């Protein structure tokens, strides 16, 4: 009878005591996958650095130099002292404060309309196109149209006269003109925010809306307790982009509708910057005004995000 001999098992030789284990070499594919996102993001980062951040730093540095006879000479904070001593720039800052106060209205309008479209009110497909149409129009065209509509003898005042409200000097009254221009700006641009809100609704859990309907929640309750918390990040994004649009994209309307008047009442920082740079040939002072505008947008944007995040956690 043949004796049983166990199968031979090849084993690695034992390591001497205290010798560290050899390091495992990471697969080549793993390293490539790790650096792939950096390679893909690099072009966008370079564009931002070269075309955004670097010019911003040059502009800030230029704001501390002089104009005219003092061109290129360091003047410290003289340009900023001149800015805050200029009544037109102070008016522009007051109007910025007004825009910040009106910002929730500018965000609520497309938010409510997007809610109605998402809930499929009758004609919602038609409304989607109609609401977005003004966003494709040039600000110059929009300004020219509303110059005709809001003229003292224009159609809007004619309709008001029929109901006994009398004519309103929409673009000639210093207390009314800024509200008229902002209203036109909101009408002309809320279509883009509407699209963003509709994209946000596509990520909202539909079962939450169904549960609210089953529980008998009213539309205001559904908006407050379901839609707003579910779209918190979308709302933050729309708040910031709408604020940037109000502060940096109204030049066309201002130029066509009021040219900063009457009596400088519709001045905004971007219009003031154009006046200093284009008409008065004071680029250093315009750079100082641009720096102030950037700081305003940065502070207001961070404050908005902080407030919205805090309110979202409380809900």
From TrEMBL:
Gene3D superfamilies: MetI-like. It is found in: Cell membrane. It is a multi-pass membrane protein. The keyword Transferase does not apply. The keyword NAD does not apply. It comes from the Bacteria. Keywords: Cell membrane, Membrane, Transmembrane, Transmembrane helix, Transport. Residues 14-24 have a biased composition (Low complexity). Residues 1-26 are annotated as: Disordered. The chain crosses the membrane at residues 35-54, 96-119, 131-152, 176-199, 237-257, 284-308. Residues 88-304 form the ABC transmembrane type-1 domain. Belongs to the binding-protein-dependent transport system permease family. PANTHER family: BLL4140 PROTEIN. This is Sugar ABC transporter permease. It comes from Amycolatopsis bullii.
